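WARN retry 2 of 3 for item q-0093 after timeout on previous attempt; input resubmitted unchanged.
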Amino acid sequence: MKSWVVVALLVVLAGNAWAGWDDVVAAYQKGNFETALREVRPLAQSGDARAQLTLGFMYKNAQGVAQDYEEAVRWLRLAADQGNASAQNNLGLMYAEGWGVKQSSLEAMRWYLLAAKQGNVLAQINLGAICEMSLCLEPDSKDEYHWYRLAAEQGHPVAQYKLGQILRDGKNYVEALRWFQLAAEQGNTSAQRILGLMHANGQGVVQDYQEALRLVSLAAGNGDVVAQGLLSGMYWNGKGAPSNKVVAYAVMSLAHANAGDSSVASMADAGLGAMIKEMSPDQVATAQGLARKMQQGKPIEVLDAYLKTLVLE
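OK item q-0093 returned
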């Protein structure tokens, strides 16, 4: 989400220029925040909403200035009161988190709604998330489907994934598949993984284990530890590719190494313990060597190279 927030701000910055604004945009895009701060402050003080938004954002994120949530709120509110949708969304976030203001879900909702009704995609996602937790507090706040769909139609991959989840839960598999596909094409690893499961289960599409393996591999290669666990299981059980205990163990080791303290780590640990009981010492040694190489490089490329050596044999 953070990268989308930065992109959204840069889009705001790149609008119609006026005296001094080009310097702000150029400095900000280069990460020269001290210069951007020096150039943007007089514009914000003169009452320009975009400059006020930018200054508030910089105080919020400690860009060229010490982090100061109260000062961030002050500048964001000035821009939000002028109807700037990005400022309204960011002010909603400040209220939601209690940063620089007393925490208030009601105030957060109010500002998110103002921004979302102007088409602000991040505010729409924030509203979708709040409604998903059954915390919608405004009479006209709609529901999560409404807000995720609006954001999804604007092309945001998180919203597309969330919309796909809602549709899949409602067993509208064909429509869910479409939204997952759009999110997956933008690199959303959760969508890539779920698409793989849908192909494996024949949900909204003809069952195809090879396509499932490709999609789960894609998510696993992009760092999705759940997908790495699933990929291990597919190789162990021969779904989409011939059964290969060495590969299964190596991929499960990768998931274990990447899972940190999450529940995936304990599941991966249990999986490794079960696998090792059915493998020879040579297989385990080969798998551990492969796992080390996968952890040091691009895992799926390393795996593909290993699989090619088996074909040549």
